[in-house]
C-alpha cells in the first residue's frame, strides 16, 4: 500500500490566488521535479480552492466560512514510507533545500502549511465478473470504432483491406 499525504497550502500575503496557482504550477513543481528526480512522488494531485470573483474569498458551499482557507490541497503518494522519507531528505539538504526555500519565499506562507498522513479506502462497486464483462464490451466497441475508421479511410484512398 502506498504512503499518502494531504498538504494544505496558503499563498503569501500580497499574492493573488491566480499568481499563487501560476507560480506553483509553472515554477515550484518543475523546480521540485528537477531537484528530486526519481524521488518525486508517484502521485502529485493539486486541487485549487475556488475563489469568489467579487471578494476573492473561498467559495464555501457548506459549513462555517473561515477567513483562513487554504489556497490549494495537494495529495502526494509514494511507494512506501521509505520513499517519502527519501524525498523529504532530498528536499531538506544542500542545494535543493536552499533553492526550494528561496522559491517558497516567493509565493507560499510556510507557517500555515499543514501536512497530514492519510489512508485510502478502495471499494469495488461491481463484481469482478461485471468488471470483466464491461471491459470486454469496451474492447469490442473500441475495435468496431477503429475498424470502421480504417475501412472508411481505406475506401477514401482506394485501398482494399487485407484479411489476416
In helices, the fraction of residues equals: 40-55%
CATH class of the largest domain: Alpha Beta
Shape: extended
In the sheet with the most strands, the strands line up as 2-3-1-4
| CATH-scheme architecture of the largest domain | 2-Layer Sandwich
Looking at the structure, the CATH topology of the largest domain is Alpha-Beta Plaits
What's the total helix number?
A: 4
- Count of discrete domains: 2
Number of strands: 4
Q: pLDDT under 50 segments (min length 5)?
A: none
Q: Report the major sheet.
A: 4 strands, antiparallel
List keywords for this structure.
Alpha-Beta Plaits; 15% strand; four-stranded antiparallel sheet; 164 residues; extended; alpha+beta
Describe this structure in words.
It comes from Colletotrichum noveboracense. The protein has 164 residues and is of the alpha+beta class. It has 2 domains: 3-118, Alpha-Beta Plaits (2-Layer Sandwich), CATH 3.30.70; 124-164, no CATH class. It is 45% helix and 15% strand. The chain contains 4 helices and 4 strands; from the N terminus they run βαββααβα. The chain has helices at 17-36, 81-91, 94-107, 128-156; strands at residues 3-9, 43-48, 72-78, 114-118. A 4-stranded antiparallel beta sheet has the order 2-3-1-4. Helix 1 packs antiparallel against helix 3 (94-107). The protein is extended, with a radius of gyration of 23 Å. The model has no long low-confidence stretch (mean pLDDT 87).
Amino acid at each position: 500500500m502506498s504512503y499518502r499525504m494531504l498538504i494544505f497550502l496558503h499563498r503569501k500575503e500580497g499574492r493573488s490566488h491566480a499568481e499563487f496557482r501560476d507560480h506553483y504550477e509553472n515554477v515550484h513543481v518543475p523546480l521540485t521535479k528537477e531537484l528530486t528526480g526519481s524521488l518525486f512522488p508517484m502521485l502529485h494531485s493539486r486541487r485549487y480552492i475556488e475563489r469568489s470573483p467579487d471578494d476573492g474569498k473561498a467559495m464555501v458551499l457548506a459549513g462555517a466560512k473561515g477567513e483562513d482557507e487554504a489556497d490549494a490541497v495537494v495529495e502526494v503518494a509514494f511507494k512506501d514510507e521509505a520513499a517519502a522519507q527519501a524525498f523529504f531528505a532530498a528536499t531538506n539538504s544542500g542545494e535543493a533545500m536552499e533553492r526550494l526555500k528561496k522559491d517558497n519565499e516567493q509565493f507560499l506562507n510556510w507557517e500555515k502549511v499543514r501536512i497530514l498522513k492519510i489512508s485510502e479506502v478502495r471499494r469495488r462497486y461491481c463484481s469482478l465478473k461485471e468488471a470483466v464483462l464491461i471491459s470486454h464490451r469496451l474492447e469490442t466497441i473500441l475495435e468496431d470504432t477503429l475498424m470502421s475508421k480504417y475501412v472508411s479511410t481505406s475506401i477514401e484512398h482506394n485501398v482494399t483491406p487485407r484479411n489476416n
